[in-house]
Amino acid sequence: MLGALDEWEGENHILHKRSPCQMKLNVHQRGEMATKMTRRGIVLILSSALLLLILVYLGYNILMAYYGPPNIVIDILFDKRTYKPEDIIRINVKVSSAIIDPIIKLPLENRSVAIEVRSKVGPLYIDQGETNAAGEFGFVFKLPGWAPKGEYTVYVVSPGSSKSANFTVES
User: Structural domain tally of the chain?
Assistant: First the structure.
């Protein structure tokens, strides 16, 4: 028979003559094809996910370039909450763009930041700076010996956002 193929069937080792169209796949071949199809499926899913991620990233960057960051968040961190006159006060400010606040925050580099520390008497400290690659800038100043006890308010502004926080001075 022209074009016939020999095929072994099962454990009985019976030889059959079949045409290529009639030939059935053995278990090994079916498993191999399923593995190839599974690999193709995984590759397709991963490449689709990567393409989607790239499109979201590009879309976000285009929106940021046109409209600016969607939600600017300022975090104010103190080295401690209570101070005494003549203590050194360290205030760390972090400026970020919150995509899904508070889950995803991207630090904003080279953002101008201004700070004002006020007591019940009036302004005590005013300064400004620019954030680093981590979106942070640190302010350090010495509390004067004449600083009245009580609550002080720290005001921080950066283009697009502002925030305030408090600390206490005790004698």
Answer: 2
